[in-house]
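User: Write out your own:

AI:
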Amino acid sequence: MRRALLLTAAIGLAAWSQAQDDQRLFQPHRPSPQVVDTPVTERPTALTVTVDPRIETTMARYAELEHPQQGYRVQIFLGDRKTAEETKRTFLQKYPDVPVYLSYLAPNFRLRVGDLRTRLDAERTLTELRTDYPGSYIVPDEIGMPKLPTPAP
């Protein structure tokens, strides 16, 4: 038993001393300084891009298509057609900038408003509309991409 312990200790000591010899010192890479023969004095002032006409027609067609994405709307009415159309008219008089969508889901018409990207935006809109439309609620829906503002000339 004692012999086995001494043998294990001797093997461990030999491995430790060999590991000490194998250690290397880390030296970071230092690149040599670059020498530039001639400085660049002229830079191009304009860039000309030639576009294939097929790309322009494809981009024009893409802009005309609808690109729906998942978002939210606030449903303010569910019921008969006559009341839905009246509610739509009164809503548009009070909020002319908010998009309104009237759709039919048998046997009722539903009136949904807004193109809201996040649930937080939908909650804000719901809070604003709750006084005029107390039965309104948030529904997930496919919304259209918002219109980008046109820059002023």
About this structure: The beta strands are 69-79, 100-105, 108-116, 137-143.
